[in-house]
């Protein structure tokens, strides 16, 4: 399995298992199956509401001798209600306790959006804090403290536009090493990829398959189907693989980590096997012409009436 290089010679396996939308009751089996199948990278977040079960699966896999903790890469994230410097470590400790781990390999600021403590999703304008009240620089000091205390090996961000990444890199003691963003052929984000690489950050592609299982609250009825796009199907036929594998392999060929979510044993294996799919330069160019641009997770839930956040400020 290809890996991405991090500081201290750490290596992140390029394909990981996504756990967003994996329901409690399903995610234990999914993670255990994935680890037995050979996954060595699990992507988590407290807002997914399933870290305790993910933790049980990791614990049981280690107990059963499937792998050691050192062989596994675990990423989790800081939710938006814990952006104040002094709230970062307590939030991290809750995640570590739920995951039953002593440390995370990677800890990300989930969104450049701050909410009042205890607010998971905003219901009204009072639930927000603006970035002038709690600047990312303040949150980052908490993230750096997490590294200093040995609770996380690497830190990074998620859903950050290039300008914001640049500002953070220029104003941080411990540099971010990852930006996890939505990436797939409908949203290739070439400039962000190039810019982040130049600044020393890797990208992780979330929603690489188009996240068709999003809740109806954040899913539009008429959105395009990535897995059924004729160009993706054509390359799948040519390479004798599935459309899902084409999309995962496309991400790997671009040098980004990729975290397809599945709770189905067959698709969990299928997605890991995408590492073996070879795409030619022509295949990649063919897929690159797919358009039109489409963002599945557009962040409009942060841009409600009265919110200090706007979509143009979020994405640039
Ligand atoms: P399931 O969990 O039943 O396998 P994303 O990673 O972009 O969020 O997409 C996840 C969605 O894609 C889920 O609905 C998941 O369903 C489905 N999925 C995962 N792997 C594949 C695959 N190889 N082919 C088709 N659908 C897939």
UniProtKB/TrEMBL annotation:
<dbReference type="Pfam" id="PF00248">
    <property type="entry name" value="Aldo_ket_red"/>
</dbReference>
<dbReference type="InterPro" id="IPR044496">
    <property type="entry name" value="AKR3G"/>
</dbReference>
<feature type="domain" description="NADP-dependent oxidoreductase">
    <location>
        <begin position="15"/>
        <end position="290"/>
    </location>
</feature>
<dbReference type="InterPro" id="IPR023210">
    <property type="entry name" value="NADP_OxRdtase_dom"/>
</dbReference>
<feature type="binding site">
    <location>
        <position position="110"/>
    </location>
    <ligand>
        <name>substrate</name>
    </ligand>
</feature>
<keyword id="KW-0521">NADP</keyword>
<dbReference type="GO" id="GO:0008106">
    <property type="term" value="F:alcohol dehydrogenase (NADP+) activity"/>
</dbReference>
<dbReference type="InterPro" id="IPR020471">
    <property type="entry name" value="AKR"/>
</dbReference>
<keyword id="KW-0560">Oxidoreductase</keyword>
<feature type="site" description="Lowers pKa of active site Tyr">
    <location>
        <position position="77"/>
    </location>
</feature>
<dbReference type="InterPro" id="IPR018170">
    <property type="entry name" value="Aldo/ket_reductase_CS"/>
</dbReference>
<protein>
    <submittedName>
        <fullName>Aldehyde oxidoreductase</fullName>
    </submittedName>
</protein>
<comment type="similarity">
    <text>Belongs to the aldo/keto reductase family.</text>
</comment>
<feature type="active site" description="Proton donor">
    <location>
        <position position="48"/>
    </location>
</feature>
<dbReference type="InterPro" id="IPR036812">
    <property type="entry name" value="NAD(P)_OxRdtase_dom_sf"/>
</dbReference>
């Amino acid at each position: 399995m290809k890996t991405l290089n991090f500081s201290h010679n750490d290596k992140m396996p390029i394909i990981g298992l996504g756990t967003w939308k994996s329901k409690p009751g399903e995610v234990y089996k999914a993670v255990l199956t994935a680890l037995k199948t050979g996954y060595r990278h699990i992507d988590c977040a407290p807002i997914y509401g399933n870290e305790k079960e993910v933790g049980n699966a990791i614990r049981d896999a280690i107990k059963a001798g499937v792998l050691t903790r050192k062989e596994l890469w675990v990423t989790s994230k800081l939710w938006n209600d814990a952006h104040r410097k002094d709230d970062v470590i307590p939030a991290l400790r809750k995640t570590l306790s739920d995951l039953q781990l002593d440390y995370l390999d990677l800890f990300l600021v989930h969104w450049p959006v701050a909410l009042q403590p205890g607010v998971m999703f905003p219901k009204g304008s009072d639930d927000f804090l603006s970035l002038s009240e709690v600047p990312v620089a303040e949150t980052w000091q908490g993230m750096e403290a997490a590294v200093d205390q040995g609770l996380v090996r690497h830190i990074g961000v998620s859903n950050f536009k290039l300008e914001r990444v640049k500002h953070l890199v220029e104003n941080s003691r411990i540099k971010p090493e990852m930006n996890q963003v939505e990436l797939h052929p409908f949203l290739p984000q070439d400039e962000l990829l190039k810019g982040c690489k130049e600044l020393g950050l890797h990208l992780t592609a979330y929603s690489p398959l188009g996240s068709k299982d999003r809740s109806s609250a954040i899913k539009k009825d008429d959105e395009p189907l990535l897995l059924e796009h004729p160009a993706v199907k054509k390359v799948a036929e040519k390479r004798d693989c599935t459309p899902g594998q084409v999309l995962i392999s496309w991400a790997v060929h671009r040098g980004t980590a990729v975290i397809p979510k599945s709770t189905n044993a067959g698709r969990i294996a299928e997605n890991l096997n995408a590492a073996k799919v070879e795409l030619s330069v022509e295949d990649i160019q063919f897929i690159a012409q797919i358009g039109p641009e489409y963002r599945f997770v557009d962040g409009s839930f942060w841009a409600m009436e009265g919110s200090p956040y706007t979509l143009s400020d979020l994405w640039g």
